[in-house]
Design brief:
The chain is an all-alpha fold. Helix content is 82%, strand content 0%. The protein starts with a helix and ends with a helix.
């Protein structure tokens, strides 16, 4: 049951990440959301993936984002519409490097915190057993 719940959560997260990628990198809702800094909408999805799904979920969100961003740059739409002609995709690579660094660093941090909490719980149970 837990695996099914986790799988459904992961699929929902990927679907929302694809939707956000369409908005940010392929100009969906461009008229309504044009004045906002849309590039930052990907970060909450990445943080949530790091918290709930671990490294595999984070890498999946990074991969979906990278493909959509490159597709948008190639088509000349979205966040990187002028990046190929202006900088040879340097802004894209800097964005993806920043996204990957932040996402994987947070994922590693969250995984380490979970591991430490589990170890402390085990140590507390062992201590209580020895006391009795």
């Amino acid at each position: 049951m837990h695996r099914l719940h986790r799988l459904l959560e992961g699929l929902l997260l990927v679907a929302v990440a694809v939707l956000i990628g369409q908005i940010v990198f392929l100009d969906w809702l461009h008229g309504a959301l044009a004045p906002f800094a849309l590039g930052y909408l990907v970060f909450p999805m990445l943080i949530f993936a790091g918290l709930r799904l671990g490294t595999h979920g984070t890498v999946t969100i990074l991969l979906v984002t990278a493909i959509q961003a490159l597709s948008g740059a190639h088509r000349g739409s979205g966040f990187f519409r002028d990046d190929i002609s202006a900088s040879g995709l340097q802004s894209y690579w800097l964005y993806m490097t920043t996204l990957a660094t932040v996402g994987l660093a947070l994922t590693t941090y969250f995984a380490q915190r979970k591991r430490v909490a589990t170890d402390l719980r085990i140590a507390a149970i062992a201590f209580e057993c020895q006391e009795g």
